[in-house]
Amino acid sequence: MIFVKKIVKYIIVTTVALATNCVATSFVEASAQSAPNMIFIIGDDISWDDIGTYGNNKIKTPNLDKLARNGLKFNNMYLTASSCSPSRTSILTGRYPHNTGAAELHSPLPAHLKFFPEQLRQKGYFSALVGKWHEGPATKRAYDTLLVDKKANGEGGELQWVNLLKARPKGKPFFFWLAAYDAHRPWSTKTEGPQHNPATDIIVPPTLVDTKETRQDLTFYYNEISRLDHYVGELEKELERQGIAENTLIIFTADNGRPFPGSKTRLYDAGVKTPFLVKWPAGIKAGQATESLVSSIDIAPTLLELAGVEPAETVQGKSFAKLFKTPDQEFRKYVFAEHNWHDYAAYERSVRTKDFLYVINKRTAFDNGGPIDANQSASAKALKATKANGKLTLLQSDALLTPRPAEEFFDNFKDPLQSRNEIANKTYAAPIAELQKVLKQWQDETGDTEPANLTPDWYDRETGEPTANKDKRGEMPGSAKKADHINAKGPF
Predict the structure, then answer these.
(1) What is the strand order of the sheet 126-131 is part of?
(2) Banded pLDDT at 209 (limits 50, 70, 90)
(3) What is the C-alpha separation between 328 and 325, in angstroms, rounded?
(4) How far apart are CA 136 and CA 26, in angstroms?
(5) In the chain, which segments carry CATH 3.40.720.10?
(6) How far is CA 261 from CA 266, 339, 380, 383, in A?
(7) Residues 177, 300: contact at Cβ < 8 Å?
């Protein structure tokens, strides 16, 4: 109890001190009575189908399922990268990773770009980030308050959420970026919320082998998602207690797929398709779903539109606010994603429509078993042991495959698991040619370039031991064309 009081006191002192300086100059531009409050919750390493409302009938996510019932569920939301910081910097700027100057893991955003919370703050919003923060020091200016001390935030990162809501400056709208550490490895030994039984409560993805070790690995992962779900419920209770739930927009999403082989860093749906739930009683009718194709670069312009702010010219995405009223509308025809260095050298690009997925790979000699936290996991070791016995399915063996195909093409409806590469199937000649052309157009217009010297592997792909190249960086994708200064949106 004393610990909680200290946290509340710390938040009050921090928020008041920082907020006072900006009230006089910016509050006149926004009204708490009209502008919606916004809470953006981003989970860490959580696949879209590991939430109950998206079809997993074993995982215990009652609050997220309730959020979906009371709002709008997006069934086709796609990230621009299945990699932590590139995905987040892309959301923060409304730009593709190679256009941010921070396309690789743990690369800081350059100061010349605009960040959408920064624009909200300039409009008069109180802006705060709680939890994981690795988008670079320039992003400090986007927030009145940064609460990024991991110990104070708790093991899952959610401990201060309710306290921040209580301590926020009243009388002005607020934007919270709530970045949980859940469900990133290493796993917690104890979590709040429902627990799961490895024998009965686990659905083993078809990319993994069903062993005792894999089930235990997934159990820890499930428990961390349920902890995150628990705090979403506590946050909603406090919104109701304060009487501000009606005009508070809540978004729940994640930055990339689960930290297991076959998901994280992949450009298949297992890596870049993400849960995306939006609740806003004042603006969204409950119980709706949309099949519209949407990219995560579209989040920034959408929230800015709702706040009455013109997006910066650097934003490449487009607002999907119209889907809140008419969710059955078509939005995008194409979504694009990229895989750059994340512990290991990589250069992959993809374009997806509702019907098809096309992927190119310029480094086919490398496997894609995921970053080190995935390829050194208990689940990965179970995969490798089973491979030695020659008993993996095609989908299970894909993460360990070398060499990889230079081109891949999947029929998303006939093959929703994206397990059969149809690139040589003449039946698909027309859509393959279309997506080849569209992907090249996107690369050309947005200034994407393949680096002459990629950032090398920092770890051995088999053992996980550091290599002699540890901490060495190569050329950033897009830097040869100064892509961080190119604002072209590309095909839509």
Answers:
(1) 145-147, 126-131, 174-179, 37-43, 248-254, 277-279, 72-74, 288-290
(2) very high
(3) 9
(4) 25
(5) 2-333
(6) 9, 15, 6, 9
(7) no
Residue 32 · residue 245 · CB < 8 Å: no
Residue 174 dihedral angles phi and psi, to the nearest 5°: -130, 150
Q: Are 111 and 139 in contact (CB under 8 A)?
A: no
- Answer whether 63's CB lies under 8 Å from 70's CB: no
Q: pLDDT tens-digit profile of 255-302?
A: 999 999 999 999 999 999 999 999 999 999 999 999 999 999 999 999
- Reading the block at residue 80, the tokens are 């621009």
Tokens of 13: 């002192």
> CA 135 to CA 106: how far, in whole Å?
7
The CA R_g of the chain, rounded to the nearest whole Å, is 22
pLDDT in tens, 472-487: 999 999 999 999 999 9
> What pLDDT is recorded for position 389?
87
| Residue in 230, 252, 276 with CA at minimum distance from that of residue 178 | 252
Q: Which CATH architecture has domain 2-333?
A: 3-Layer(aba) Sandwich (3.40)
- Three-class HEC string of the chain: CHHHHHHHHHHHHHHHHHHHHHHHHHHHHCCCCCCCEEEEEEECCCCHHHCHHHCCCCCCCHHHHHHHHCCEEECCEECCCCCHHHHHHHHHHCCCHHHCCCCCCCCCCCCCCCCHHHHHHHHCCEEEEEECCCCCHHHHHHCCEEECCHHHHCCCCCCCHHHHHHHCCCCCCEEEEEECCCCCCCCCCCCCCCCCCCCCCCCCCCCCCCCHHHHHHHHHHHHHHHHHHHHHHHHHHHHHHHCCCCCEEEEEEECCCCCCCCCCCCCCHHHHECCCEEECCCCCCCCEEECCCEEHHHHHHHHHHHCCCCCCCCCCCCCCHHHHCCCCCCCCCCEEEEECCCCCCCCEEEEECCCEEEEEECCCCCCCCCCHHHHCCHHHHHHHHHHHCCCCCHHHHHHHCCCCCCEEEEECCCCCCCCCCCCCCHHHHHHHHHHHHHHHHHHHHHCCCCCCCCCCCCECCCCCCECCCCCCCCCCCCHHHCHHHCCCCCCC
Cα gap 317→331, rounded to integer Å: 12
Of 472, 210, 258, nearest to 373 (Cα)?
258
